[in-house]
Amino acid sequence: MQKSSKPASRGKTKAPAAIRGSVLTLETPASQLVLARCGDVWTFAHLGAKTARPADFAALVKARQCGDSANGNPTLETYPAFGSTRPSGRESAAERRGALQVRHADGDVNVDWKCLGVAEIPADDGATEVAITLADKAHPSFRAVQHFRAYADCDVFETWVELSHAESAPVALSRMDSFYFDASRLAERFHFLSLAGNWANEANVSETEVLRGQKVSIGATSGVRDAWENNPAFFLSIGDRATEESGRVFAGALCWSGAWHATAEHGYTHELRLSAGAANLCGPYVLDPGKTLPLPKFVFCLSEAGKGPASRALHRWARLHRLPHPGNRDILLNSWEGAYMDFTEKTLTDMMDGTKELGGELFVLDDGWFGRGKYARDNDTVGLGDWFVHEGKLPRGMAWLAEEARKRGLKFGLWFEPEMANTESELVSAHPDWCLQSLAGRPLRLGRGGTQIVLDLCNPAVQDAVFDMVDRVIRDTKGLAYIKWDANCDVNNVGSVYLGPEKQGNLWFDYTRGVYALFARLRAAHPEIVFQACSSGGAHAEYGFLEHADEFWGSDDTCAQQRVFIQWGENQFYPACATAAHVTAVPNHQTGRTASLKFRFDVAMSGRLGFELHPKNMTPEDVAFAKRGVETYKRIRPVVQGGDLYRLASPYEGDHAALAYVSPDRKRAVAFVYGLGRRCNDGSVSPLRIPGLDPARRYRVEEINLEKEGEAPALGALQGARLGGDAIAASGIPFALGAGDRSAVIELVADNRG
Ligand code: DGJ
Known about the structure:
This protein is an alpha+beta fold. Among the domains are: 8-322, alpha-galactosidase from lactobacil brevis (Beta-galactosidase, Chain A, domain 5, Distorted Sandwich), CATH 2.70.98.60; 646-750, Immunoglobulin-like (Sandwich). The chain has twelve helices and 36 strands. The strands form six sheets. Strands 6, 7, 8, 9, 11, 12, 14, 15, 19 and 20 form a ten-stranded antiparallel beta sheet that branches. Strand 3 and strand 4 form a beta hairpin. The longest helix is centred in the C-terminal third of the chain and has 23 residues, at 620-642. Residues 1-15 have low confidence and may be disordered. Bound molecules: (2R,3S,4R,5S)-2-(hydroxymethyl)piperidine-3,4,5-triol.
């Protein structure tokens, strides 16, 4: 299904020239970012709907003394630093804030920017990109190059900063945010929405008002599982709490897989300070002279019509510009819950037969296929890090197994955990210094299985060794189509022998850069491979990993009822095509709950459908239903995976959830409704009001994926009806969902008769 690489350009028309004297305008199809030069620096003048006269915003900002409020606190500077003179020239405690805080080689702790210039950077995908070069007045070699990019085919902006210097000795960076926005009186109320969770309980939606004088700060300190405790993406309602369809919403996402923070502060004169960046958890980052440090990218957008458009903009950006491979994702069967580490060649070929029979397209062998001799991976205490085929389980090797998949018309995928090792492994036995560890030689704190550690990927030699092993397996396997990249341990041992005593503070950042370098190298060597970002479930559901991986494993909680909530949270920011959702056996291995196969299918079909069970344990009735479900999914797959998401009823606000995908041309749509323990004779399911349809078209409405062929649909008399997009948006499609965990899938196809 996947094409082999990202096309050079998925954009369309080129946006207008960005730089006009002291006004810098970046435009997406419907929104505009205007920056204005104020003295030595640039300031945010406008982020919102497109306007005809961007220079007016510059004039207004200048009239506000370049963004300073009456008491001199906030600044609209695009990259304020600790110690800067504010554009107005008025001093205040605001100089203590900012995106950046450094200690120069001479001990000075201030930065005071002077803009050296602005350049428009040619972009090959229709985007408009500018780079603002700032230099410290007292240390002119200390520079920040701040990039802004506006996409021509989605309403998303991107920004990032590169720091460099040529001072006489290293510069210490104690704060190095990617984004900072500081403005006054945008509104008098602010509401912050973020995701919080843990293993098997990812992406709980939390929303709170940030009251005057308060600060809400989210972040992650794992160093690896960075999207668990919080996810590095958020919505900020500017004014009243936005709904799906109304209200002003700023959406932001930090593209980073290490330690990070994001903070929203509501000051007492109604300033709003938003910041986000990589976090330094054990001292400053030490930047050597002559080196350039690219900070993580931050993507953002502004919706004037609620959270729905903000989600859709991010999803579209991800599909068009972030995920490596365009197109639909394969329906796969992953071996984990069906076999765990207990398998033989026959187990796997039986699973392949089942995958084929169900209509699957890809078979993925999960954990347990590697390790040699006493480190053969028969349980989670040994073998991690030794990427050699487990000859006891797979005597005919991986190429043979891949060929078995190919013979059945299936693609073949493999699980790796490249960042980690067990202390019980050839790798760690040979290279104990390759583990992250305290420089004082403290005993290692061990993770999963009592033996798991994180490798020191700051060290290029470790990157090389892991690359060589993984690359060899890929080459030997021949035709490997998919890799599940897992990561199941935090940075529990803080220290890197490689970095040495002066640079321990660099660990958090350089570890993640090392992961990305390894990833980029593997991808460059094998561009056709589709990667899944997994980290103990959904801890890599973020746009740092999703530059290299096409999808993420949503959660180890595969219980369909729980997945309704988890996917609801993840899909606030991440698209359905990237959300791996698998049909698993019942009782569910995590929660012990049961659900009908239809319910499990209906939930998984709203993301990237897959299986995680042994097909031989399915009844003939289940197999028959699953075959029909897979065929149905293949038909609706382009709508689900490439469509715009409309959230219709939140599982947090009632006892059912509903969502719909509408194809970009608005000719097709699919809606999903999930009852969540609904009571008998409870008519409270909201009519399906789908706002994204074409009001001028009529749609044939049909409930699909019925439990039994010929069964009475929940749609009742409306089954097969032709209804106008305008009527569906205004009144909604009524239907009756039975009691308990019931679900329905409704397909809408535009009628050619108009
Ligand atoms: C954690 C993942 O989330 C699971 O899906 C599975 O791959 C296991 N690791 C394997 O150890």
